[in-house]
Aspartic protease
Amino acid sequence: MFTPSIVALLILLLEPASAGPLSRTPRPLQLRGPPRSFSHLRADGIFDYDWAHSQSQLVRAKYQHTAAIASKAAVLPNTLTVNRRASVSVPLVDYIQSGLDLEYYGTLNLGTPFQQVTVDFDTGSSDLWVPTLCVDSTTDVLKPAFNSSKSSSYEQTIEPFQIAYGSGEVVGTIASDTAMLSGFRVKSQYFGAVNVMSPQFLNDPASGILGLAFPQIAQTKQPPFMQQLYNAGVLDEPLFAFFLSRQEQGAVLSIGNTDSTHYTGGITYTPVTTQTYWEVQSTGSVVNGKAVQPSFKAAIDTGTTLIYLPSAATAALYKAIPGSREDSQQGTGMYAYPCNSNPTVAFTFAGSSNEYTIDLRDFNLGPSEEQGMCVGGVIAMDMKDTNGEPLAIIGDEFLKSWYSVYNFDGPKVGFAKAR
Ligand SMILES: *[C@@H]1O[C@H](CO)[C@@H](O)[C@H](O)[C@H]1NC(C)=O
């Protein structure tokens, strides 16, 4: 009879001898693909449509990738035991470029003893991945990477890990190790040990990504870090929450409770409609106080900078702002509106009549080439959720105004006025 290790060996032998992701020999961290611009404004201060286009490509690829995984998902085991209940807060760094809050990241401890890696906390995906130096690697890396040969608890599987992101990709192997976030420790956290990545991630101040959505879209087919804490019953309250700062530091991820210093009034919840992303039902947009249809499903996504709506909903929204027009020449799904019209743009969600306004400082992405016109922060993109329904992606541009709560009990997403 085959023991598991013999089976593993056989699988390895079936691979070509040079198979990169499956090889146990030294694996240098490689770079593939074009670099990425981090500024949304050109040198002359005008909005850069090329930047917007590459951002859109990243978002599109992320959602196509995760939707494909969900179609193959299986039920996952509960792997943790309860020790104690607690709540913690994780300070986040706001990465600001040309006055735009591009992403928020923080520190994760990985391995035994702990090594610190920085990760972008992303409610729009469900995998943890970090650049990893594998056994005997002597490559010089240009950003902090996890050195697996320094960790006594590191275990590597033979399963490949790969995510395509439009113009780039990350490639590696599924591994597991001990992970700790501000005192919450998960003994065996599966992650993508990545050894090939495109320069767009190399330029990124965060080393990797920590996905906070549901296990159904995890490529590792293992519970995400936060899901493990919830399954184990160690959270004071079954939730985590984000305060995202605007053009200053102070952003915070709270785990196990909400941070009342960062919101006013009550938290109003809307149910999660499909447990893949933190996907909710928006009942439509509101422009200058008038309701605008159609409605749409929306993924609430801390890992996306801007806001993307189905093209019909986007067209209707800008139609309600007099003088606005599509930048059809650019073909990016972007619109411009008269800067002096100062529109009030809001969304509504199932379960309440609250109107959630996007702050004009965030909605206005900067001057368009046409005098007096500004580029609007709602962009047309036709994405589908895992049920084939049109899906909007509501990112940091919205979440800076609205403290957001991700509650496993429901599950449901809550919003309260951020401060
Ligand atoms: C990774 O750790 C090993 C073992 O401690 C060490 O020999 C090697 O130099 C480290 N690699 C890098 C790039 O730091």
Observations:
- The pocket of 2-acetamido-2-deoxy-beta-D-glucopyranose is lined by residues 133, 147, 149-150 (CB under 6 Å).
